[in-house]
Amino acid sequence: MTLSLAHLLLSLLLTGLPRFASGAHDYQDALSKAILFFEGQRSGFLPQDQRITWRATSGLSDGSMYNTDLTGGYYDAGDNVKFGFPMAFTATMLAWSVIEFGDSMPPNELRNSLVATRWVTDYLLKTLSQLPNRIFVQVGDPNSDHNCWERPEDMDTARTVYAVDAPNPASDVAGESAAALAASSIAFRSSDPGYSDTLLRNAINAFQFADSYRGAYSDNSNVKDGACPYYCDFDGYQDELLWGAAWLRRATQKDTYLNYIESNGKTLGADENINEFGWDNKHAGLNVLVSKEVLEGNMYSLQSYKASADSFMCTLIPESSASHIEYTPGGLIYRPGGSNLQHATSIAFLSLVYANYLSRTSQSINCGNLYVSPTTLRQLAKRQVDYILGDNPKGLSYMVGYGDYYPQRIHHRGSSLPSIKDHPQFIACKEGSIYFNSTNPNPNVLVGAVVGGPGEDDLYEDDRADYKRSEPTTYINAPLVGGLAYLLLIPTLVRTNSARLFHFCM
Questions:
Q1: Marked catalytic residue, from 462, 463, 466, 503
Q2: 328 lies in which domain range?
Q3: How many structural domains compose the chain?
Q4: What is the pLDDT of residues 409-420, one digit of tens each?
Q5: Which residues form the Glycoside hydrolase family domain (predicted)?
Q6: Is residue 190 part of a domain?
């Protein structure tokens, strides 16, 4: 095979992953809206500068069951429960977006990103306030909550507080909380050093709890009925221990955490499940994060992490002999299970971060039968973001409020029920059913919300009842913030000649 023919074949395979005609996207507008979405998910007392004005204060009694203040934080999706595990991951990804791509954000959006991050880190500090003996992992009984269709401002379902007391384990939630606060301490270091110090101190305490009492939080009998089946720890707690240690290493530069990553990698399964990244499985993100140290510091003792990061990136390339990730006919990364866009946004984010790490050290990836450059990874990420914004078979923007054609009937209580400002009368649990079952568009536009998205066939019905496809989540949006910020910096990517992105190992 000639080199030019190889170039042409790979170019066609990567992008076809077909492309759909559209004008250039306004990434700055999309970034603004992706961040704005988090204001629609706020719990607690809303400030005067709240921009999503159809929302109001809610959840002010949260924590009363333990005579403690657990107000604030985010509702994770379209319901009114505060699940600590995905919320902490959301904070980590918002902070990582600022760390890696904050310099390319307009100043006002950098500020808004930090505000969105602080809304959740302030809450996480409350959940850790009774360490070293107790961590709060959830507020709200999901079974009674999911039995109602109520605005958060009206909710009268049980605000059950789920806590884990030592020596019972919560390595996953505590480890992710440690990662979130350590990453956020870096994000806030220049703008608020005092707050940064507070975050780091609490991150260290959270990690100590996670490591001292090893096990999954959802294995606790007093937590399982609340966490499962929604946010059980399905993939094990070991990755969160390494993930928390890796972020503490980056935040502190202490050898204590470097030694932990080195010595515990094998015993905690760092080489397992390397092709996953999301709220429940941190392996691919862990490997990318640790690889920065390998690439920049010649840390040969951590080479296995970089090898796993390389392997993950190779799985994304259709023509690679290691190709593993599925794509829809329209070019979207696809994994079974619903809420598919969480995979597209998180993998796109990792691709951009790793591309940057490789570029700074002038390296590419050997994927067996071909080399993959940082530019390839950036193009792949851009393709995912553009698909979400409307370059797809349906021509539909999966971000609410972006463009002229986007989902109108998202699975979200506050968006689908009349605003308390327009309808101040109480709407009881079952009284909301009429709005859930309505075929009318949601009366309140949750600007910036990215829904679960289409399935493996690129099909999407704008159906409120189809929660796997129509429900937005904080952990879909959080990594997208970083991806959009990067694309603001490199507007010429759209003109890159894809035939220059690969070359075969000859």
A1: 462
A2: 1-40+316-410+446-506
A3: 1
A4: 999 999 999 999
A5: 27-482
A6: no
Active site residue 233: no
- The answer for residues whose C-beta is within 8 angstroms of residue 360's C-beta and 6 or more apart is 295, 296
Residue 494 lies in a domain: yes
Radius of gyration of the chain (CA): 22
Determine the 3-state secondary structure of 163 from DSSP.
strand
Determine, yes or no, domain membership for 159: no
Q: In 10 A of CB 187, how many CB atoms?
A: 27
462 is known as an active-site residue: yes
Residue 486 belongs to domain with CATH number: 1.50.10.10
Give the C-alpha distances (Å, rounded to integers) separating 362 from 250, 290, 353, 355.
22, 18, 14, 10
Q: Residue 22: which pLDDT band, with cuts at 50, 70 and 90?
A: low
Contact 187, 98 (CB under 8 A): yes
Catalytic one of 172, 411, 412, 458: 411
Active site residue 458: no
Report DSSP letters for 444-497, one per residue: S--TT-B-----TTS-----TT-HHHH---HHHHHHHHHHHHHHHH-GGGGG--
- Which two three-digit tokens encode residue 369? 């039968």
Q: What is the pLDDT of residue 11?
A: 41
User: What tokens does 128 get?
Assistant: 């850790």
Give 55-68 pLDDT, tens digit per residue. 999 999 999 999 99
Instruction: Report the chain's terminal Cα–Cα distance, integer Å.
Output: 10
Query: For residue 151, is it within any domain?
Result: no
